[in-house]
Structure formats: C-alpha cells, structure tokens
Design goal:
Strand order of the largest sheet: 6-11-10-9-8-7
CATH architecture of the largest domain: Alpha-Beta Barrel
Helix content: 40-55%
Family: Belongs to the NadC/ModD family.
Order of helices and strands: HEEHEEEHEHEHHEHEHEHEHE
Low-confidence stretches: none
Radius of gyration: 24 Å
CATH superfamily of the largest domain: Aldolase class I
Pfam family, one: QRPTase_N
Keywords: Glycosyltransferase, Transferase
CATH topology of the largest domain: TIM Barrel
Protein name: Nicotinate-nucleotide pyrophosphorylase
Number of strands: 12
Structural class: alpha/beta
Shape: elongated
Catalytic activity: nicotinate beta-D-ribonucleotide + CO2 + diphosphate = quinolinate + 5-phospho-alpha-D-ribose 1-diphosphate + 2 H(+)
CATH class of the largest domain: Alpha Beta
Strand content: 15-25%
Length: about 260
C-alpha cells in the first residue's frame, strides 16, 4: 500500500478545513492558476484573494476543504504557484513605487522564461503595477541582431521606417558598430522614436542623453535604459535622463513570497 493511503486509511472519509496564510506583505498573484489547480484536485474552495490584491503578513488568501490526500497535495502544489508569482508581482510593485511619475518602468524579460510560464509571469508583472511593453503605441523593435544583420543602427531604422512610417521605431544601442553617441545620432536622424541604451552603463546613458539634448525637439525622442538594473539604481537612472527603464532579472528572479498552508481543527 502506498504510504499516504496507509497513513490516512483511518480517516479516509473525513474532510478537513484548511487555509493558506501569507507570512509576508506584498502583492498577491497566481489567483487564476490557484483556482485551476484546486478544481483539478477537486478541493471545495471557499475563499480566494483576487489577482493583484495587496496583502499583509497573516492574511488568509485561500480557504478550502478536502480529504486528507487532497490537503497534502494542495500544500505541495498551491504554495509554489502563488509564492513565485506573488514574489514577481511584489518586486514589480516595488519598482513601480520607486520610480517617479515621469519615468516608465517595464519588464520585457517575461519573454525569456519557458513558454508555458509566460502568460502567468506576464500577468504577475502587470499585477505589480508595471507594463511589459516599452510603449503602448504600435512600434517596431530593432534589437542588436537586426542592427548587425542590416549593417548599422541608421540603416536598420531607415528600413523599418520605409516599411511603416506610422509606427514608433525602437532601436537597441550597444555601441558595437560605432560609438554609442554616433549610433544615437544616426538613429534620431533616421527617424527612431525610442533609443534603448542596453549596455548597463550609466556613462552611456549620460552620453546619449547629452547628445539628444542638442536636437531641436528632443522631447519627441524617448530614451530607454536596460542592463542589470536593480531597485537601488532607479533614482540615478532617472537623474541621468532615462524616460523608460526595462528591468529584467531583478523582477523575474525575485524571491518567492512566503505562504503557509495549515489544517484548521
């Protein structure tokens, strides 16, 4: 006989109430997935916190009822689900609160996680109060490989503009083919709308911002910044001229939020 069946043989027909408590404050995420798994386990669900809800330590985010095996399986499956997604949402919220109103925080790194997790992680990022797109307008994104294949930043932007002049052209600047200030100048003259300084270097950000200020209407061009950004970096990044900050691992790899599942007698 399988161990659990043996251990629970004397209480097979009984049902137990259980609750999941948050052990930390943060943003609750993973509600839909938790609901789906509880349905699969046939747990009698009584309460579940909504997606994106702000929680405090000690809050009961879920309550349900099930047989002994359902309860222990719930502990195995529920906590990891809401723990990871709530950790991501909480980290996103901290970045959102840290940034001033005139700087946009986004997280596009959800595209680098396994495909089956992308939808849920994207939802967690949004639940934390930040976006996943560098701009809400239609755009064309030219990353480093497009630039390498098409020869240089200016050539890549010009070709994208010929394809659809109505879209904002976003181009990644890395200073690989030309110095990054020259790449920025070429991008602006070719019609780029957002310059993504993706070197992780504050000096590069300063240089691009200074170069951009020399143009007639610099406010029409946005500067984005990315590369190993942490929470402590946000203020200095804004001071150095960034309009948009793309945060990656500091959000996607955020620690799990701690939850506990307890049988309630």
């Amino acid at each position: 006989m399988e161990l659990r069946k043996y251990l629970f043989s004397g209480v097979k027909d009984q049902k137990w109430n259980f609750k999941i408590f948050s052990k930390q404050s943060g943003i609750f995420s993973g509600s839909a997935k938790l609901e789906k798994i509880s349905d699969e386990l046939k747990v009698e669900r009584e309460k579940i916190y909504p997606e994106g809800y702000k929680i405090e330590a000690g809050d009961c985010v879920f309550s349900g009822r099930g047989e002994a095996e359902q309860v222990v399986k719930s502990e195995e499956m529920f906590l990891g689900t809401i723990g990871k997604f709530s950790g991501i949402a909480t980290a996103a919220s901290k970045f959102s609160q840290k940034a001033a109103n005139n700087m946009k925080i986004v997280c596009g790194a959800f595209k680098k996680v396994p495909f089956e997790d992308r939808k849920d992680i994207r939802l967690s990022v949004v639940s934390g109060g930040i976006g996943t797109r560098i701009t809400d307008s239609p755009f064309v994104y030219l990353d480093k490989n497009y630039v390498r294949i098409l020869g240089c930043v200016e050539s890549a932007v010009k070709k994208a503009r010929r394809y659809d002049s109505s879209r904002i052209i976003v181009v990644q600047l890395r200073g690989e083919i030309e110095p990054i200030v020259q790449e920025a100048a070429g991008a602006v003259e070719a019609g780029a709308g957002i310059l993504m300084v993706d070197t992780g270097s504050i000096d590069d950000l300063k240089s691009v911002a200074a170069a951009l200020s020399k143009y007639k209407d610099p406010e029409n061009i946005k500067i984005a910044y990315s590369g190993g950004v942490n929470l402590k970096d946000i203020e200095i990044i804004e001071e150095c001229g960034a309009d948009i900050v793309d945060v990656g691992r500091a959000i996607i790899d955020a620690p799990m939020l701690d939850f506990s599942l307890d049988v309630i007698k």
